[in-house]
Amino acid sequence: MTHRIAVIPGDGIGKEVMPEGLRALEAAAARFGIDLALEPFDFASCDYYLEHGQMLPDDWFETLKDHDAIFYGAVGWPEMVPDHISLWGSLLQFRRRFDQYVNLRPCKLLPGVKSPLAGREPGDIDFYVVRENTEGEYSSVGGRMFEGTEREVVIQETVMTRTGVDRVLKYAYELAASRPRKQLTSATKSNGIAITMPWWDERVKAVGERYPEVSVQAFHIDILAANFVMHPDWFDVVVASNLFGDILSDLGPACTGTIGVAPSANINPDGSFPSLFEPVHGSAPDIAGRGIANPIGQVWSAAMMLEHLGHPDAGRAIVDAFEAVLSEGDPAVLTPDVGGQGTTETLGRAIAARIAG
Amino acid sequence: MTHRIAVIPGDGIGKEVMPEGLRALEAAAARFGIDLALEPFDFASCDYYLEHGQMLPDDWFETLKDHDAIFYGAVGWPEMVPDHISLWGSLLQFRRRFDQYVNLRPCKLLPGVKSPLAGREPGDIDFYVVRENTEGEYSSVGGRMFEGTEREVVIQETVMTRTGVDRVLKYAYELAASRPRKQLTSATKSNGIAITMPWWDERVKAVGERYPEVSVQAFHIDILAANFVMHPDWFDVVVASNLFGDILSDLGPACTGTIGVAPSANINPDGSFPSLFEPVHGSAPDIAGRGIANPIGQVWSAAMMLEHLGHPDAGRAIVDAFEAVLSEGDPAVLTPDVGGQGTTETLGRAIAARIAG
Ligand SMILES: CC(C)[C@H](C(=O)O)[C@@H](O)C(=O)O
Ligand SMILES: CC(C)[C@H](C(=O)O)[C@@H](O)C(=O)O
Q: How many domains does chain B have?
C-alpha cells in the first residue's frame, strides 16, 4: 500500500527545512519498508500568490482531497502579502475544508535543548496541547460599521458548536485515557468570557462522564498560561479552544526551549480527508535564505505523520534519531539556535544518517 | 484636601491582605501628610451575594461614584457562587460603569523574589502591560441556540469601538513616550482573528502617527506569549485588548515570579469616576483562612493608588519599603511563598514599619 503525500514547502525557511524533513522521511521509509509517493506543490505560498493573485488554484480541493496526508513547511511573508490573506487563503482553508479538527502539539523537554526555565531536566516536562482547529474564535463572521468615522464599531463572532466542541473533547479525553497519568486540563475563561466559556465548561463535564478514569481540572487561560511557566510538570493533556490552544501551543514549546523545533499535527481523526503536518515555527523572514534554520520541527512533523499513517515504529525511530543527535551535541552538526555552527543541511543529514541506522 | 477611598476586601485572602494594605497606606499617609478618608464596604463579595442574592446593592453606583478611588481585595468563591456571576456582578461592573478603561500592570523582577526563568537578575525585566478594560472580547452580546440538542450553537461577539481602542492606545503611547526606552509592543492576532485584529493593527498605526518618538512593534499573541518567556527583557510597554491583556498580565508576573505579589490599577484617566486598585491574585480559596497570603500585591496596589491620587513620592516610598524588606530576606518576616515562615501580618507590619521610616 502506497501512502500519497502532498508536499508543500510554502514560504521562507519552509523551503529550507522541507528537504531535510523529506530526507528523514525517506530514510525512515527505506528502513521500515514503507511505500511513499511524494508529490510536490508550489501553491499555498506567497510566491504563488504574487504570480496568480490567489494563494491556491481553483481546483485545490480536488487536487489534494485524496492524498493520505499533507506535509507542509511554513506559510507567510508579511512584507509582500498581509498575513490574514496568506493564512486564510491556505493553512486555515486546509484545516477547515479538510475538517482537521484536532491540532495536536507535543511540549517536551528534549536532551541538549536549553529551556528558559530554571532547574528543569529532560523528563520533567512532557505534555500535549490538543487544540480545536476549525471554529471558535477563528470565525469569518463579523464586520465593520460606521467605517472611517469616530463611531466606528468592529465586531467578530466566536462561534462554537456542540458537534465541534464535543468531538475535540472526545479526542482529548481518549488521549488522556491512553497515557499513564490520565490527566486532562481544560483551558477556560468562564469568569470573563461569560457566554461561550461557561458552556465550554459544561461540555467538558458532559463528555467527561464517559471517561471516569480521566481526572479533569479547569484553569482560566490567564492563570493557565502562568502555570505553564511556574508548574509545567503539572500537565499531561491540555485541551483548549482554537485561540487558547494557539497561544498555549506556542507558550508550551517556548517553556521547553523548543519553539524552533516543535511539530504539529492537524488531524482529521476519521480519515475522511487528509491530515496535515507542519512545524510550529513560521516562515521566519528574519533568518530565511541563510541556510541556518533548525530542521527538527519539520523532521518531528514527519514522525507524527508516519505515526498517523500507521507506522508508530518509524515515527519513534525519527524521534530517537534527533534526540540522539541533540544529545551528542556536536557543534559542527547543530544549527546556531541549539548552540552549534552547522547548517540546516548538516543537521538534517546527521539525523537521516542516524535513522538509517 | 481629603481623598475619599472606598475599601472593599471582597472574598478569601482579599479579607486577609486588605488590613496590611491599609496599614501600608496609613503609614505612607502619616509620613507624607496625606489626608485619607477610608470607608469600608462589605458588598462585592460572595458573602454578600449569599445573603442578598446579588453581588451589589441597588444603589452601588450612587454610593461609590463620588469616591476618589476604590481599594479592592479579591473577589470570587467558585464553590459557592459561579465565577461568571460573582465577577460580572462586581469587578467587571466597576470597570465598565466607572469607565476604567485602562488596566495597568507592572511586570518587574524584584530583589529576593525567585523567578522561574533561568539567569535573570533584578533590573533585567521591567515593563508594563496596558490592557483595554471595558470592551473587546469581554462582551455581553451573544447566546445559545438549539440548546440541549446536537445542533447546539453558542455565539459570543467581540465588540471593539474606535473610541474604546483609540483611548487605550493613546494612554499606552503616552506611557511609552514617558519612559527612557520609548518602546511600544502591540499584541495582535491579525493572521487568525482576521476581522477585529487587522483593524486593531490599523488603529495602532493611526494613533501612533502622533507619537513619532515611540518605536512600535507588533507580535501575534501566540509568539508574544512565547517571547515573554524567552525574551522578557525585550519589553517596555505592551498594549493589548481585554482578553490578550488579561493573559499577558498574568503571564508577565509569572515570568518575574511575582504572580502572588503583582498589583493592578483599573484607571479612569479623565477622573470622571473613581479608579480601582487591586492585587492581580484572586481570592485563593486553597490558602484562604490560614493567614499566610502574601500582602505585597495589596500593598503595591496602595502605592499605585497614591501615585494616581497625585502622591508619587508616597507611592515610591511604599515600593522602596517592600523591596527593602524582600532584599533583607528575614525568614521570620516573609510569607512562605517567598521562602519564609512568617504570616500575612508579620510581612505587612515589617513593610509598614519601613514606610514609617
Ligand atoms: C476575575 C477575572 C474576571 C478578571 C479578568 O479576567 O479580567 C481577572 O482575571 C483579572 O485579570 O482581573
Ligand atoms: C499562522 C496562524 C494563522 C496559525 C494559527 O493561529 O493557527 C499559527 O499560529 C498556528 O498556530 O498554526
A: 2
Model confidence pLDDT, tens digit, residues A20-65 = 999 999 999 999 999 999 999 999 999 999 999 999 999 999 999 9
Return mean pLDDT, chain B: 96
Cell numbers for A36, please give them. Answer: 511513499
CATH number for position B165? 3.40.718.10
Pocket of ligand 1 (CB under 6 A): A 191-192, 222; B 87, 92, 246
| Full-model pTM | 0.96
Q: Locate all alpha helices (DSSP H) within A33-187, ordered by sequence.
A: 46-52, 60-64, 83-88, 91-97, 162-177
Ligand 2 within 6 A of B327 CB? no
pLDDT tens digits along B140-180 = 999 999 999 999 999 999 999 999 999 999 999 999 999 99
Q: How many angstroms separate the CA of residue B61 from the nearest CA in chain A? A: 21
> Are residues A188 and A298 located together in one domain of the fold?
no
Range of the domain at A279: 1-101+269-357
Which one of B189, B220, B224 would you pick to mutate in the ligand 2 pocket, going by the greatest count of ligand atoms within 8 A of its CB?
B220
Contact A225 B246 (CB under 8 A): no
Euclidean distance between CA atoms B108 and B120, whole angstroms: 11
Instruction: Please tell me whether residues B133 and B47 are part of one structural domain.
Output: no
* Nearest-by-CA chain A residue for B154: A160
pLDDT digits (tens, 9 = 90+) for A65-82: 999 999 999 999 999 999
A87 lines ligand 2 (CB under 6 A): yes
A191 contacts A244 by C-beta, under 8 angstroms: no
Spatial CA neighbour of B80 closest among B40, B51, B42, B43 = B51
